[in-house]
Design goal:
Blueprint: H1 5-15, H2 27-44, E1 46-51, H3 56-59, E2 65-67, H4 69-76, E3 83-87, H5 90-99, E4 104-106, H6 122-131, E5 137-140, H7 145-149, E6 153-155, H8 160-166, E7 171-175, H9 178-187, E8 192-195, H10 208-217, E9 222-225, H11 231-236, E10 239-240, H12 243-253, E11 257-261, H13 264-271, E12 278-280, H14 294-303, H15 312-326
Parallel strand pairs: 1-2, 1-3, 3-4, 5-6, 5-7, 7-8, 9-10, 9-11, 11-12
Helix pairs in contact: 1-2, 2-14, 4-5
Length: 327
């Protein structure tokens, strides 16, 4: 896109406070997209929702609402915009549509999937119910609308323990992330957690040996890990929590040096607000999140694509599971 002085001023205003994360060399590239996206957001009465794993130029440049899966789900239900553009993966766009059935929900790349969401199907859930009759099903928000529709309630990594405890059942089926299920089981030993074998292709690559290596190379470092990581990683961590919880930890505790064991753009986005803290970045990227770019967000607004639609019968039941979580 053509660079203009106006676009340059906009980029400087957005990125000057975080130039330690987005170097000035990149501003002329991003600036025209920021200006054009701003214009078309006004034209469409649109907002951009961006997950914590989005790149900094999206997260800090054009997003109106940012956060983890829970925050985006809740805020999506509160917006007065006519159009919601989800800078995230497909299940997040589905969640936004479920909570805003009368609004237009767009995802800039319809191929932005999720290894967890694709690890389980609605027929799988129905088979689990046959095998464990009467046992409630909790589906992680990282699932398709069809899977949510077969579930009793949804959960995120922020509230999974609270959700499972609230069911007051001696057994709970928790799908699809086996590592998050294991983490929940450790917090609630009185409940038998029946897990699925799904996992996140980003978080499952971390190892306990890798964490010990960070400690050797950076004495005194604080290790924060996402509960989608394998058990040996969580055992080595100083703190285990959702992306929102990790961000709060950094803001509240202000460790001198920190490593966030999750998707690496998360570190960039948190580091933008804490230039005084040393961030060690293990760069495990989510290939699905990285399908979302500024040019694709602009094209989504220009062409009103790709619109997310959900079968009404599926949507009604999936919405109920999401709303139970929020309640």
């Amino acid at each position: 896109m053509q660079y203009t002085a106006e676009a340059g001023l906009l980029a400087a205003r957005r990125f000057e406070p975080i130039k330690h994360v987005i170097p000035e060399l990149e501003w002329p590239v991003h600036g025209p997209y920021l200006a054009a996206i701003d214009e078309w957001k006004r034209e469409r009465n649109a907002v951009v929702l961006a997950h914590n794993y989005q790149t900094p130029e999206i997260y800090h440049g054009v997003a109106d609402i940012v956060g983890d899966s829970l925050a985006l789900a809740v805020e999506a239900s509160r917006t007065s915009a006519d159009v919601i553009v989800v800078a995230g993966v497909y299940f997040m766009a589905e969640s936004a549509k479920l909570l805003n059935p009368e609004k237009t929900v767009l995802i800039p790349d319809e191929e932005a999937g999720c290894s967890l969401a694709s690890s389980i199907t609605a027929p799988d859930v129905r088979l689990l119910r046959e095998r464990y009759p009467g046992v409630p099903v909790v589906s992680y928000v990282n699932t398709s609308a069809e899977v949510k529709a077969e579930s009793d309630v949804c959960a995120t990594s922020s509230n999974a323990v609270e959700i499972v405890r609230s069911l007051r059942s001696k057994q709970v089926i928790f799908i699809p992330d086996r590592y998050l299920a294991n983490h929940v089981a450790k917090q609630l030993p009185e409940i038998e957690i029946i897990a699925w074998a799904g996992s996140c292709e980003v978080h499952e690559r971390f190892t306990g040996a890798e964490i010990r290596g960070y400690r050797r190379g950076h004495p005194g470092i604080t290790v924060l890990a996402h509960p989608e990581c394998p058990p040996d990683v969580l055992e080595e961590a100083d703190f285990v929590g959702s992306t929102a919880a990790m961000s709060r930890y950094v803001g509240d505790r202000r460790p001198a040096s920190v490593v966030m064991i999750t998707e690496c753009s998360m570190s960039d986005n948190v580091a933008a607000d804490h230039p005084e803290i040393e961030f060690v970045r293990p760069c495990n990227l989510c290939p699905h999140m990285k399908r979302i770019t500024l040019p694709k967000i602009l094209e989504s607004l220009l062409q009103m694509r790709y619109e997310v639609t959900i079968d009404p019968h599926v949507a009604e039941r999936a919405r109920a599971a999401l709303q139970r979580m929020i309640a």
